[in-house]
Amino acid sequence: MSPARRRAALLLIAVMSVNASYTVLIPFVPELQQRAGADPTVIALTFALFAAAKTLSQPLGGLWVDRWRPGHVAFVAQLVAAVGIVITAVARDPQTLLAGRVCWGLGEGLVTPALYAGMGLLCRRYGLSSSRLIGNFGTAAMAGFLIGPLVTGVAAPLGLEALFFAGAAVTAVTAFGLFQAIPRSGEEEPEEAEADAAPTADGAGAGSAGPWWMWVLALGALDLFANVIYSAFEPMLPLYLSAGRDGSVRGTISVVFAVGLATFALFTWALGRYTERLRLMTLIRAGMAAMALGLAGLTLSAEVAPVAASFVLCMAGSAVLYLTARRGLIELRSAMSRQGKAFGLFGFIGDSGNVIGPIIGVALFGWTGATSFLLLGVLCVVALVGLAVASGRFRGARATEATGTTETTEAQVEAQETSPRPS
After folding, report:
1. Which domains does the chain show, CATH number per domain?
2. Cys staple from 283: which of 27, 75, 303, 324, with CB 3.0 to 4.6 Å?
3. Cα distances (angstroms) measured from residue 210 to each of 220, 244, 397
4. Where is the Major facilitator superfamily (MFS) profile domain (predicted)?
């Protein structure tokens, strides 16, 4: 295996490990209630504080990445996460349980910008396709979500402590793997990386199209939008599928979400290989359109087949937006010397969608029922119109800038031709 493939594989394994942390705890909720004396409020805080610690610590991790090295930050962050896993495993009271989850989330948040910065370093050092690596990254992330409950279900007879201790050991080993996988920043940076550039509608670098942080905010908002839509689905679809039905619909809900998540993983992998030459704005429009159509389709029927088909369309659109936002950030040349800050800010904005999405979903569904899907679809259409307007203005500004530059150049040539020449 070549050094590039070996390092990329280690990075993707770490991504799976990090994302498995989100779901590995779910089957053990009843046992945690008994062991730590946790009431429903504490259980809710167990998940909420983990997500909050991960979200809030990403900008800090980004600053650290720029001041130190991504591989070193990833190494320390994974060790912090391992400590949090151990504390969670041995918790016998609510305070210790919550402290363990906060420590766990802190480690996961610190490592996230290091993973993204490491991905950018690998692309530049070895000439890897950013689209392809991001596609693999997204597939690995989704595999982690699916592996968490699967591993827990298979290894449940070992007990919570043994399983979590094993998980902490795997996380520690992953720390050493990331230390080896992520190149040292600065060794492979091209000299022009410091140029003031930003991604245009076709994903290439542009001239003075705005400061780097404005593009990070825009791409983060795109990721926020996608995360809000998906995380709103998590409470909305079970409520929608169970409304007016007798008996349990757990199997139906599981099938719908499994098909949707598998679609996301497959589309992210495929998009990374076959859309590298497509412009970023084209991909964004396609993703928004697919989500709008899927959301509209959800209002037609609450039967399993049409709901699953519409959800698949939504997840395909979500995969397009996931890939586009990260590809745009990696190709943002003006942020190459500050990728830690860029990915830290991007992750903070995007992950905030996972916090507010369920609240928006429950509120909308309780207020309007199935019409809530249509309202979210209208939001996608509004975003599409806004993108069209913004894209048109951007092209106009770029054309004006190019025209002004041409006029200046012609004026300079004319002045040179009419100026006196030395004899």
Report:
1. 1-184 (1.20.1250.20), 211-405 (1.20.1250.20)
2. 324
3. 16, 52, 11
4. 7-395
